[in-house]
Amino acid sequence: MEKNKITSAGKLLLSEVYFRNRYNALMQIVDSQIDQRMVKVAVYEHNVTLPPIVKNVVTRQEALRNMMVNLKAMKAKTKEASKQGAKLIVLPEYGIYGPAKLGGLDKTKLVPYLERIPNPNIVSWNPCDNPGLFTDADVQIFLSCLAKNNSIYVVANYGDLQQCQTNPNCPSSGHLQFNTNVVYDNHGNFIAKYHKFNLFYEFHFDTPKQAEIITFQTPFGTFGIFTCFDILFHDPAIELIEKGVRNIVFPTAWMDEFPFFFSVQFHSAFAIGSGINFLASNLHLPSNKFHGSGIYTPNGAAKYYYDVKTKEGRLIVADIPVLEKFSKTQKTSAITTTYKTVSVTNYQSQFSVPLFHDHFNIVQVNNRLGSISVCHNKLCCSLSYQMTGNDERFVFGAFDGLHTYAGRYYLQICALLKCRDSNHESCGLFTNTSTTYFKDITIVGNFSGTYIYPEILLSKDGELTLSTFQKWQHNENVLILNGTSEFPLLSASLFSREYSRDTATETQTQTQLLG
Among its keywords, does the record have Ribosomal protein (predicted)? Predict the structure, then answer.
């Protein structure tokens, strides 16, 4: 244990009056760029039926029978979404045949489930209207007709099998196979294809040579597309946002990870921090930690579903604002802020605690009212707060460095976090209960980058829930709660990815099999 010697960089408690004025100015800029039209969209959290685990490779017909169970469920929910007025629906990653590992599908056993998916930039094709153009395209035809018959844009995740005999690096199988998103417009036309670039230990798929930056046009805005683990890396996720894309469709097979990567927690934070609409469709397999889907906007969750108790999936339908592209000058003006600081003179004992397999420097939140700071490497974080009671242990921590568990990427995080019990070691353990309300929180950090995502997690009757974000304000490296939290607090964090410090080797490192 050693005394936490706060540097001048760590004495960063923002003037709240100044910030609120600056925040209101920011909101006027953002509001001026939001088309006041609204559009109804849908995401479907699907309880996927896994194929039977078999010793040998199944036939194509057996694979189709297995997939049809899930496709029929998707058909029913797509029809329901259309009846509710939705113009677009997103279906989950691995929703058609399930995560390969859970279904016993290695790279060879997966092949009968895949189809050759053409390049829509080269081939103009409506599979529903012209089903004979390609052989073995049953799933593509089904999805195209699903879109056409329900007059709805359909975003689905499937598998693309591409022959590669002319490629000197072609494997002995003679083909490559990719985790692939496909998009069909409301007439059934095939309009977009995206190959997942950042595979999460999916050894049954191949990695594309480079990240694809894929968008598609609709009457209600330009949409970008990427998949699951892609969200943590610059390419393609941030590349799309830097190009001004403000609507993202996101098929995912997301597994919760305490304390910063609960699905609805991180996806809503990404939408808010990026100023975008974000449509996340997840699997519903709570026993395997796959669950949590939502429709998120720059102002928080329009609607989400997070239920660990039921076996049923859920169709989510909500209205979102029609967001037009940011111009480069607009985006710059919207995020430029000058900060004021006040001095912190109190010093607290500092501990090192593993959170998310990273060793954070933390200080204990001892008093009902106070201001504290903590530093780790070049990052210093400051907190001012009020809270009801101090029977439960909360800590405030900082991390600045390379995260190395289940991937390698650089993070900077300031986090106010509830511990499971009174021991410091419990601060890295999952808890979903809290009875402590916080009031007038200000968290600020001297982050190196500008990609900072505000994460808020509350506890409602022992269930994880999001804040409405009506009481919270966020701008770059500052998070403020005005008034009292709606429910007892579990965590409030500023989560920053330092993409510029990543290397190609680190972002492609894989250490365990998930998919």
Answer: no
Min mean pLDDT across 93-97, 341-345, 378-382, 469-473 is at 341-345
Q: What are residue 443's DSSP bridge partners?
A: 383, 479
Number of domains, the chain: 2
Q: What is the pLDDT of residue 506?
A: 52
CA distances 229 to 196, 232, 344, 357, 507, Å, are: 9, 6, 38, 18, 10
Answer yes or no: is 513 within a domain: no
Q: How far apart are the first and last CA of the chain?
A: 41
Quote the crossing angle between the two packed helices 16-32 and 328-335, to the nearest 10°.
160
Q: Is residue 275 part of a domain?
A: yes
Query: Tens digit of pLDDT for each residue in 31-54?
Result: 545 457 999 999 999 999 999 999
Residues 395 and 276 in one domain: no
- Whether 515 is covered by a domain: the verdict is no
Residues in CB range of 298: below 8 A, 6 or more apart: 30, 34, 271, 272, 274, 275, 276, 277, 323
Lookup result for tokens 């995020």: 335
Q: Which residues are catalytic?
A: 93, 196, 228
Task: Count H helices and E strands in the chain, helices first.
Answer: 8, 25
Q: Domain of residue 384: give its range.
A: 2-29+334-507
